[in-house]
Specification:
about 500 residues, Growth Hormone, Chain: A, 18 helices, mainly alpha, about 80% helix
Length: about 500
């Protein structure tokens, strides 16, 4: 009996998964709360946005790389490496002495997050059959909902009582406990073959994603020369990447996997929903606060309704997809996205904030359904050896959608601000004063609010079109029957 291999303790591994995810989920909201104090001490206001962009850049680029490494080396060593990198970045960020140093350490944190999210979701896929996995995905969705509420509260408390460094150092006990949980309770078969690492493919892919994100970030803001260099780097790295993957024995990015129609349909819909999500989180609070002339608390309530709808959709779909079928749920769930976006397109300055909250709730509900069902479907239709890469491809699509949505919808909003019919051009300073509340009740604030209403109305219409794209992508999903051993029919 003593020679038997240790058995994985699924509930305790899920506890470690949730702790790992909580670190990444808290990071976004808690850092946003503390950034004004950080930039006051460190200076470098012009680099403010890069504290967030640097994290997203490496997280997006490394998601696919670590997903592949999890397939090659096993989930356990890769998740432990990801936690270690994330904690190292957290410790160093707390000691940052300047904004450039902070950005470098945030790059490290983002790389760690790029390992944690895809590998933890892959671990869940390994441990639970499809008919149980959906319920666990609902638990994981609740981690993000709770973190969205606790993050700003924890950030405000830390800034008020302690040094801002503790918003990063608070990750240490959580990460150490999560790592100990994986070490003690996750047991997998050792990898017996010597994997071939496509290092060149990983490098070209990382450079291509970094260049793409810089192009999207700088479009319309940077000089023509800088933008041309970034586009040239993007084109060259993409060509080198494609050439490398076509000749690599074990490519980092499998074109066969990414081109598989169900994977392509799910990831396409995920990309569109990621774009719509960025429009919701970025512009809805602005509309409620300025165009509707409501308090930041009311604006926050309208947005928070999305975090009520998301876990609700995830939980309901996880309990019903084995009866209804994944394809039907995916198509039906995607219908909630344009339904919510339509509510935003119909908003007027005189509308009730409750209507904005309803639209947020409906969109969140649809995204919860789509996120859970897409992951379950993708994980079930690929071989076990590709499950990490397939999971990572879905997360990459969401992250890329967030970036594309920020760039595209931001450009639409700026265009609307400068072309509001009959209202004249609104200066950046005028908009800033009204957004800050300092000029909300001044005589000149009414035209600014009217111009913002017109520009955001156009932005919400663009968001509606993007949400319709998610439906179009889901309609490409073929009828699939999940393997009989999983006891879950797709139809």
């Amino acid at each position: 009996m003593s020679s038997q291999a240790p058995v994985t303790n699924r509930p305790l591994v899920i506890a470690a998964v949730m702790a790992s995810m909580a670190m990444v989920a808290l990071e976004a909201t808690i850092v946003s709360t503390a950034m004004p104090q950080i930039v006051t001490q460190l200076g470098g206001l012009r680099l403010y946005s890069w504290v967030f962009s640097s994290f997203l850049l490496t997280q997006t680029a490394m998601t696919v790389v670590f997903g592949k490494l999890a397939d090659l080396y096993g989930r356990k060593p890769v998740i432990l490496a990801g936690i270690a990198v994330f904690l190292l970045g957290s410790v160093l960020a707390g000691f940052a002495w300047s904004m450039p140093a902070m950005i470098v350490f945030r790059l490290l944190q983002g790389a760690g997050a790029g390992a944690i999210l895809p590998v933890t979701l892959t671990i869940v896929g390994d441990l639970y059959p499809a008919h149980e996995r959906g319920k666990v995905q609902g638990y994981l969705a609740s981690v993000w909902a709770v973190s969205a509420v606790l993050g700003p509260m924890a950030g405000s408390l830390i800034i008020g009582k302690l040094s801002w460094a503790w918003i990063f150092w608070i990750n240490l006990p959580i990460g150490v406990l999560a790592a100990l949980g994986f070490v003690a309770f996750l047991h997998e078969q050792p990898v017996r073959k010597r994997p071939a690492i496509d290092a060149a493919g990983a490098a070209y892919f990382t450079v291509a994603v970094a260049a793409l994100m810089m192009v999207l970030t700088d479009a319309g803001a940077a000089g023509a020369g800088r933008l041309a260099v970034e586009i040239a780097v993007l084109g060259a790295s993409l060509l080198l990447f494609v050439r490398q993957e076509r000749r690599a024995a074990d490519p980092m990015i499998s074109f066969r996997l990414w081109g598989h129609r169900p994977v392509l349909a799910c990831n396409g819909a995920t990309l569109f929903s990621g774009m719509a999500l960025m429009g919701l989180t970025t512009f809805l609070p602005m509309y409620v606060q300025v165009a509707m002339d409501r308090t930041p608390v009311v604006a926050g309530f309208a947005l928070t309704m999305m975090m009520v709808g998301w876990p609700a959709g995830a939980t309901i779909s996880s309990r019903t997809f084995h009866r209804i079928g994944l394809r039907r749920l995916l198509i039906g769930g995607s219908l909630f996205l344009p339904a919510g976006a339509l509510v935003f397109a119909l908003l007027t300055p005189g509308s009730s904030p409750a209507l904005a909250g309803l639209g947020s709730l409906v969109m969140g509900f649809g995204m919860g359904i789509q996120s859970v069902c897409s992951l379950v479907l993708i994980q079930e239709i690929v071989p076990l050896a590709d499950r990490g890469s397939a999971t990572a491809s879905n997360l990459f699509a969401r992250n890329l959608g967030n970036t594309l949505g920020a760039a595209l919808l931001g450009a639409v909003q700026n265009f609307g601000m400068h072309h509001a019919a009959g209202l004249g051009v609104v200066s950046t300073e005028q908009l800033r004063q009204v957004l800050d509340g300092a000029g909300r009740h001044l005589a000149g604030s009414a035209p600014v609010r009217e111009a913002l209403h017109h520009s955001l109305h156009v932005t919400f219409l663009a968001m509606l079109v993007i949400a319709l794209g998610a439906i179009a992508a889901m309609l490409l999903l073929p009828g699939i029957e999940i393997a009989r051993r999983q006891e879950v029919p797709a139809e």
